[in-house]
Please model this.
Amino acid sequence: MHDQRSTIKSRAWWAPALAVLAFIALALGVAACGGGGDSGGDTASSGEEIVVGSLLDATGPLNIYGKEMTNATKMAIDDINENGGVLDSKLKLVDFDTQSDDTKYTQYANQLALQEDPAVVMGGVTSASREAVRPIFDRNKILYFYNEQYEGGVCDQDTFATGVVPSQQLAALIPWAIENIGPKLYVVAAEYNYGEISADCVKKYAEEAGGTVVGTEFVPLESSDFSSVISHLQTTKPDVVVSLLVGGEHIPFYRTFNATGLNSEMKIVSPTFGLGNEQVVLPPNESKDITVAYPYIESLDNPVNKEFVKEYKARFGDGAYVTDSAVTVWNGWHIWADAVEKAGTTDREAVIDAMQDGSGISFDSPSGTVTMEPGSHHVAQDISIATTNDKHGFTVISTKENVPPAYENEVCDLVKDPSTNQQFTP
Model:
């Protein structure tokens, strides 16, 4: 059974303890009365506020992603509250700026769990930040949504993912690149779990499509030196460069690629370019002919998106380019809210059951219809191939509707085995 909405307007540190004993008593009291407990947030009486949490990088090196996600969080909470709230109650957002620091993610996740008893927490930008907080929310029985694209494979009863995964994104982008550009691929990736696992996925999808990965190079997140990468590209001469680069420090790669003239010899495809509005920062000649694949592109022509973009820009400025990351956050909050309405309670287990019931929860998003898959806790969604244009944006080439998270659905079935808690890798 689907609980759908078709428009944007569709719905209604710990403060210092005065003494050590008081601190201990408070912590024990929270543990006994909730702190997530078995319920993950008690159902509010009509008119009471429902506490929800957010952990995002509003500042720090990765705020090129976190800023738009923070914007979308505030916009989603306001949208839900302005349209009746959830179960006739308003949402009270407790949000933290994690400043691109995983130790702060851990600190604030514990603070949320021990003090706030949130009905749900949404957040995390990198996979490292997700894995810093996920065990905390598991331990405290708190529902957690990770709303960003990632390397895939997380299978956890308390975790739901709305971002695109390689079995949707790279499975579309890599065959397109081989067919339209050429069979020789060189992978340049951020040196952490996202880049490393995604690089393995590129190799898998390339082989399946008749292509070959002729080289792979990993670059630390904090590095902006791409001289060795450029040298290897000049020597290897691939047809396609697959960029799995992440963060503001990696933007110089595209400038150097253009300055050395490599863009006339080979083309870049990327599942990450544009998430941080790189196409806005770079002049069009430095981002020319870069092809991406995302569920959401700002120029998508559908009524829900037109209204969403209009309201987003009215609130955050005409210069704000709406990213896929912003929309996955928007989707996460509304899917959770729909599931709570369906369950009739914010009780964690009941909300999980609501998202696992039948064919899951569907939501009409700016990116198209998005459906939370009951077994894998990942979403089926549209995937668009798009290329950079001379207006600091993207032009959609093609869209495939309702693409399932195929790998996640294959390896993860939490309906049959709810005790599974691991990240599967190809």
Summary: The first strand starts at residue 50 and ends at 56. The chain has two domains: 47-164+296-381+406-426, 170-270. Residues 170-270 form a domain with the Rossmann fold fold (CATH 3.40.50.2300). Confidence is low (pLDDT under 50) at residues 1-39.
